[in-house]
UniProtKB/TrEMBL annotation:
Protein name: O-methyltransferase
PANTHER family named among the record's database cross-references: O-METHYLTRANSFERASE CICE, PUTATIVE (AFU_ORTHOLOGUE AFUA_4G14580)-RELATED
Residue stretches making up the O-methyltransferase C-terminal domain: 168-283
InterPro entries listed in its UniProt record: COMT-like, COMT_C, COMT_dimerisation, SAM-dependent_MTases_sf, WH-like_DNA-bd_sf, WH_DNA-bd_sf
Source species of the chain: Pelosinus propionicus DSM 13327
O-methyltransferase dimerisation domain sequence ranges: 15-87
């Protein structure tokens, strides 16, 4: 008998990760993290929820085994990360966002779609409205943006802009508008526009009102692929939108270049898709369900960079940030041929 020369450890590890992910979503659905801010027994939680005490104990043990709970003397409590992101009483709660994103990108139908092909209507429209609730997504990402994305953006922007600069910004396809909201909070003389489609724009409008920033941020409704977006901006935030520009990529990058002041900057976050569409793994797998359904929405990094270059943009060099923030950081582009910050 010949013995295999390669280990199946990779596949067994994937199976284990799948089980742990199932436990995470079960914990969110059962809301067990809401009861575990402090040391609590399974008996106490069972009395409050009506859950079966025996099986609840087994379940909590499993959550402790995978590092989501701590256990001591038959008492359980959330780990610091679980308390921050999985307890609904936390201002940084992400349980709803994680659940929605899992439903939005889930691969439960992958076998059927591979066998039968995409939905003809989705394939023809190529817009995503049939698949995604963009309004709900905008609401849920309002907190997620604050868990790293906005911090990396602000720390990088601080290398280019003076704190007291009277900047005019545009958050293009801004979703919740949190990038713009946090920017104007950081730069007290800044003001600008959040541009979103009519079906989503109510979300940033509500959040701007909650922050009492109506005098500094206005909401523009429309289709930024085809409608005017304004001009004389010192900074345009384009987070994720160029990846989905499809046939309008060249027109959109040209429009953005024309909307900027001569010394303005573009802050770009993209999925950085390779030309062979196999990297980065997170983007390829994350958008697979929508692609199988019929959408064709991810632009390659080289296509995006070519469109930016053709529009007159060049990439800025930003000083390295710490590793945790660097991994979330987008890229700054300028039309200028000299270095320096926003004046």
């Amino acid at each position: 008998m010949e013995y295999p020369t390669h280990s199946p450890r990779k596949f067994l590890g994937m199976l284990q990760q799948y089980r742990e992910t199932q436990l995470l979503f079960a914990g969110i659905s059962l809301k067990v993290f809401d009861f575990l801010k402090h040391d609590t027994s399974a008996e106490k939680i069972a009395s409050l929820t009506g859950y079966d005490e025996r099986n609840l104990t087994l379940f909590l043990n499993s959550l402790a085994a995978i590092g989501l709970l701590e256990k001591s003397n038959h008492q359980y409590r959330n780990t610091p990360e679980a308390e921050l992101y999985l307890n609904q009483s936390s201002s940084s709660y992400l349980g709803g966002y994680l659940t929605f994103w899992n439903q939005m990108t889930g691969l439960d139908q992958v076998e059927e779609l591979v066998r039968l092909g995409p939905d003809p209507a989705i394939l023809k429209q190529n817009e995503g409205k049939e698949l995604f609730d963009f309004c709900k997504l905008a609401r849920l990402t309002a907190v997620e943006v604050r868990t790293g994305r906005v911090q990396s953006f602000l720390r990088a922007a601080a290398q280019l802009a003076e704190p007291a600069a009277p900047l005019r910004i545009l958050d293009l396809g801004g979703g919740s508008g949190m990038m713009a909201i946090e920017f104007v909070r950081q730069f007290p003389l800044a003001s600008g526009v959040i541009f979103e489609q009519p079906g989503v724009a109510d979300v940033p409008e509500e959040l701007v009102a909650e922050e009492h920033l109506e005098h500094r941020l206005t909401i523009m409704r429309g289709d930024f692929m085809t409608d005017p977006i304004g001009n004389n901006y010192d900074l345009i935030i384009a987070s994720g939108i160029l990846d989905f520009a499809s046939a309008n990529l060249k027109e959109l990058t040209t429009k953005m270049a024309q909307a900027l002041t001569p010394s303005g900057y573009l802050y770009l976050v993209s999925h950085k898709v390779s030309d062979d569409y196999i990297a980065p793994k997170k983007s390829i797998v994350g958008w697979l369900s929508s692609h199988l359904a019929g959408l064709d929405i991810l632009q390659t990094r080289s296509n995006i960079e070519l469109a930016l270059t053709s529009a007159g943009f060049r990439k800025m060099e930003i000083k390295p940030l710490d590793g945790a923030i660097q991994s979330l950081m987008g890229e700054f582009y300028t039309k200028r041929h000299i270095t320096g910050g926003i004046s």
